[in-house]
Structures are given as C-alpha cells and as structure tokens.
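Quick one, tokens below. Sequence please?
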C-alpha cells in the first residue's frame, strides 16, 4: 500500500478538519548530526497486569487483554530529575563524552518535576555542571517532547551554535493516573527516562533528513491534566484543583483524529526526505498503546520486524517512550550506520510529529 492509497483511505472516512497549510517544525533541510550515545533509566519496581487485576477485583488476564501490557515500570519515590540524570549519564558514557563536553541541555518532558523553574537546570546541577553556565531549558510537546527537542537540537548544531547537546525525557505517569475513574486508561502507562547525545556528524554521512509536525487543536481536550497550571487557583478552587490533578483521556476521540491525519502526515514527512515506505529500515513509534501500534503496522503495511515494540514490558512512558524505543534499537543493533529510521508519534494537544533519520 502506497502513501497515496493511505490518503485516499482517509478521504473515504470522516471529513478532514480543514485548516491552513500544515506547519513543519524546523527548516526543511538536512541537519548533519549523529546520535553519539543513548541511555535509559528504567525503575526496578514493576507493576504487572495481574497485580492490577487483583487490586481491582477483576478476573485474571483482564487488564493484559484490554491493554496488551504485561507489566510496566513504576518510579516509586524516585524523582523525575533523578531518573533523567541517570539516563543522561548512561548516554554520556555511551558517547564517550564527559558532562563538561556538553554545550546545551534540553529537558523534554510532558510533566516536569515542578512548574517553576524549568527542569533542565536541575539536571544540569545533578550532572555537576551548576557552575558551567551552559544553556539548560525545557521543551514541552507532551508525548512528542523528545521529537521536537531533538529537531531543535539538530538545527542548532547545523547552525554551528553547538556541537554536543543532551536531550532527555523523564516521566512519572504513575502519580496522576485515574484508577477509580478510568482504570483501563490508567493501566496503559509506565514510568522511565531516556536520553540521547545529539552531536555534529564530523564528516559522517547521514543525519536528520526531514522533520514534520502538525497540530490539530480540535483534539485539545481529548488528553489532559487540567490542574497544575493557572486554570484552577489552588487557594480558592481546591476541590476543582484536586479533581483536575488526574489524567483524563477520551481514547476514542483521540484515535479517530489520529486515524484521519496520519496518512497525509506520513506522505508529507516521507516526501520531505525523498523516501518511499520501502526505503524505511526501521520504525521507532511512540508506544501509545497496543491498539495504536497494531493500527500503525496495518496502515504502513510493513513487517512487524521493522517496528520497535516495547509496549508489553514498558507501557506508555509519555515523552520518554520514543527515546526509550530508540535506545533499544541502537543497543540491539537494529539501527546500523546507513540505515533509514522513521520516528513517529502523536501527542496531547492534538499533534502528530516525526523524523526521518539516516544513521551516521
């Protein structure tokens, strides 16, 4: 099935949301970068679907059947910045780079450790760089935070404003899950952190060939945590604040919107790279759910062996999902030099984004 077939298939379904020209994230040029090293931190504590069934009084096997998830890591008392720093240190070791060799730190999380300040300076301090003065800031695009931060890092390196940039995502979903209101949604998520060192390619062939992002705010309220910002005043609206502190998701609405936009989105992204589906060696998707991964396989019409699939053992780790999958791809030799890697995901907001990488 070619991409124009995907577009026609979308057109046969519900009408597309009409808008102006889709915006791309970053300039449509190749960035000569390489992923010098990756690292992850996966909490040792794990919660199985069997545990959830026991807690909810369900027949054994119910949660795994509904979610496709066997178990998921749980952070427990660990902090987001601790997990981020552990993943960052692992990535630095893999890259053979001391922390002092970094030119910039970008924290790419959906939910930071606290609203103010940004979490990146805290990671900087934990890495022993508190007196270094290197820029440290956050990028938040929900589940696509790593993708948008990676694209930004690549463009900054291409512009020769930096040579080595740490991009790290760390998420603790388990602290805001709606177990009483929506246990099937709550069971989708896991905790963890992952990092990548994005570096100048130094003459190596390949790099970031294309990036693309589209946002469709008609789906803004399909996935959200309403409280924690300025929407509710904790001092005057404590009941609303407390009620809004849990994650909410209209999974069916989000799925319908994704199904409408993914086909044309892929055509635009691959077109920028000059690729056809047959040129893709490996797909690194956001691990949203078993259903979402199965749908992606069906829509792309490619072998499952070309998909990095961690959903059964990790669950949906929000922004840490894609870099964790990317790390596993590199660690297991699934993305050798010269291979074409398609990174794709969706996020609350609603956005869809992706990267076309030729491994340098």
């Amino acid at each position: 099935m070619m991409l124009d077939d995907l577009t026609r298939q979308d057109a046969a379904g519900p009408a597309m949301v009409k808008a102006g020209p889709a915006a791309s994230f970053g300039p449509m040029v190749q960035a000569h970068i390489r992923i010098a090293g990756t690292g992850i931190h996966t909490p040792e504590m794990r919660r199985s679907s069997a545990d959830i069934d026991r807690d909810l009084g369900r027949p054994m096997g119910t949660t795994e059947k509904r979610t496709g998830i066997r178990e998921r890591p749980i952070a427990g008392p660990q902090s987001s910045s601790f997990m981020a720093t552990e993943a960052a240190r692992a990535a630095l070791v893999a890259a053979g780079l001391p922390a002092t060799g970094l030119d910039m730190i970008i924290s790419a999380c959906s939910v930071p450790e606290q609203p103010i300040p940004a979490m990146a300076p805290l990671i900087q301090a934990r890495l022993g760089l508190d007196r270094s003065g290197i820029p440290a800031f956050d990028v938040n695009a929900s589940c696509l935070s790593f993708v948008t931060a990676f694209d930004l890092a690549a463009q900054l390196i291409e512009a020769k404003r930096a040579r080595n940039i740490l991009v790290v995502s760390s998420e603790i979903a388990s602290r805001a899950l709606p177990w009483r209101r929506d246990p099937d949604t709550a069971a989708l998520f896991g905790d963890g952190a992952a990092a990548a060192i994005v570096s100048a390619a130094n003459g190596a062939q390949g790099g970031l060939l294309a990036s693309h992002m589209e946002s469709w705010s008609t789906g803004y309220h399909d996935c959200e945590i309403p409280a924690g910002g300025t929407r509710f005043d904790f001092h005057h609206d404590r009941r609303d604040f407390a009620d809004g502190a849990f994650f909410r998701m209209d999974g069916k609405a989000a799925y319908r919107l994704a199904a409408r936009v993914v086909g044309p989105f892929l055509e635009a992204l691959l077109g920028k790279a000059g690729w056809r589906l047959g040129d893709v060696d490996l797909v690194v998707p956001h691990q949203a759910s078993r259903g979402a991964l199965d749908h992606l396989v069906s829509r792309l019409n490619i072998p499952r062996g070309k998909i990095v699939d961690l959903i059964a053992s990790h669950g949906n780790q929000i922004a840490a999902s894609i870099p964790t999958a990317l790390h596993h791809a590199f660690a297991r030799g699934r993305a050798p030099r010269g291979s074409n890697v398609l990174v794709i995901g969706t996020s609350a907001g609603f956005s869809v984004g992706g990267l076309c990488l030729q491994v340098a």
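The radius of gyration is 20 Å. DSSP finds twelve helices and 13 strands in the chain.
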